[in-house]
Amino acid sequence: MRTNFMPIVNDTIYALSSGGLPAGVAVIRVSGAAAFAVAEAVTGPLPAARMATLKTIRTRNGLTIDRGLVLVFPGPASFTGEDCVEIHVHGGKAVVNALLDELSTFDRCRLAEHGEFSRRALENGKMDLVEVEGLADLIAAETEMQRRLALEHAAGGLSELYNAWADRLTRSRALIEAELDFADEEDVPGSVSDLVWEDMERLRSELSDHLAGAQLGEIIRDGLKVVIAGPPNAGKSSLMNALAKREVAIVTDIAGTTRDVLHVDLNIEGYAVRLYDTAGLRETEEVVEREGIRRALMTVADADLVLSLAEIGDRPQLDFPGFSGKVLTLGTKSDIHAGSSIDYDVLVSSSSGVGLEQLHKLLRQDLSDRSEALSLALPSRLRHRTLLGESLAAVKAALAAGDKGLDVRAEYLRRAGNSLGRITGRVDVEDLLDVIFSEFCIGK
């Protein structure tokens, strides 16, 4: 079933595929049935496949636009699976606009929609849905771990795992059907119990272990959510500014200065860390401050890690409504306090910088503990986690349904395979595609 994502499927499409202008070089990609004819009209005779050749790019009226490299990629051995041409010109706005304007004059040749090149690659079997999502994440990656995780997905590492699991489910269902239909035949290989259910128990364990890495995958992709919490004037905003190495939050001696949730993105050991500063937690009747505290508690409940601050000598809060994760306790303003009988995880002074390196070390250790012994073949989106959970639940149901007949158990395995197929796009996922490809830039 088609959607409204692409106006005309058979159009030849073009777009700037190399990012913002001005730039040293701009790459204009053309893809579709008429790509070679369109490119030849502006560059002259096309070079051999995959041979970068310097050409003069002209309008059809003979006016020179620029000189640049032309590369030809015959389908299906191209990114989209269609005939593709890349034209590399100088990255000035006037040059690029002139070339795009000229391409727009050809019949059935139009500017590509968001992600349309990648969508055509999916529809032509060059990529699956997980690889497409990985490509989108690779383009957006800002940290080393985000790059590595996205590359694992874009290169097909995760898809290979899911396809192997789906094939095992298909084989198991085939053996069950064989036992149901040919139970009296001598060439049916053994008992289903021996050939299927032991493997399904292993698959249950593998799915469960894989899902355990979903939290890390989402942390790598979206960032470790670290929330600074504590009473007013405990030094929360000062700590945030010190960690960010710039003034993100307003710092005053007036209690209740921070009313809303502020955040800044950090890069720690290649991991993205999203650091949140929240309103001071205390009893108050002031309406605006109470709303700030409500938002602070909501942010804490959704955190991966909480830094609970208290001025040295005061006890830090250890329990927060709705949060059951790890809490690090920080004693603040160590530059004006000699010591305390209270045991904190780390003593810090935002003004002098004392303790900040130790805090960085604790954050690095937390990330290391979360990623220990895990590969980067990890689910990184809620969509992945939801469908993996459905598949695992179906496998568990099949294993537990020993008294319900092979046909019922086979149906559970069919559901498990269907959920896995929806992750990679092997099963119809048309309703998801518009959302996914809308995340891409025009030239991809």
Task: Give a verbal description of the structure.
By secondary structure, the chain is of the alpha/beta class. The chain has 3 domains: 12-127, Probable tRNA modification gtpase trme, domain 1 (Gyrase A, domain 2); 137-213 and 381-425, tRNA modification GTPase MnmE domain 2 (Four Helix Bundle (Hemerythrin (Met), subunit A), Up-down Bundle); 221-371, Rossmann fold. Helices cover 43% and strands 17% of the residues. It is built from 14 helices and 12 strands. The strands form 2 sheets. A 6-stranded mixed sheet has the order 3-4-5-2-1-6. Strands 8-9-7-10-11-12 form a 6-stranded mixed sheet, sandwiched between helices. A hairpin with a 5-residue loop joins strand 3 (53-58) and strand 4 (64-73). The chain is flat and about 80 Å long.
Radius of gyration: 29 Å
The biggest sheet amounts to: 6 strands, mixed
CATH architecture descriptor text of the largest domain: 3-Layer(aba) Sandwich
Please identify which CATH superfamily of the largest domain we are dealing with: P-loop containing nucleotide triphosphate hydrolases
Helix content, binned percent: 40-55%
Note the total helix count: 14
Total beta strand runs:
12
Shape estimate? flat
Strand order of the largest sheet: 3-4-5-2-1-6
Content of β-strand: 15-25%
Distance between the termini: 23 Å
CATH class categorisation of the largest domain: Alpha Beta
* SSE-based structural type: alpha/beta
What's the order of the H and E elements? EEHEEEHEHHHHHHEHEEHEEEHHHH
Overall number of structural domains: 3
Query: Could you report the average pLDDT, rounded to the nearest whole number?
Result: 87
Low-confidence stretches: 1-7, 250-254
CATH third-tier fold name of the largest domain? Rossmann fold
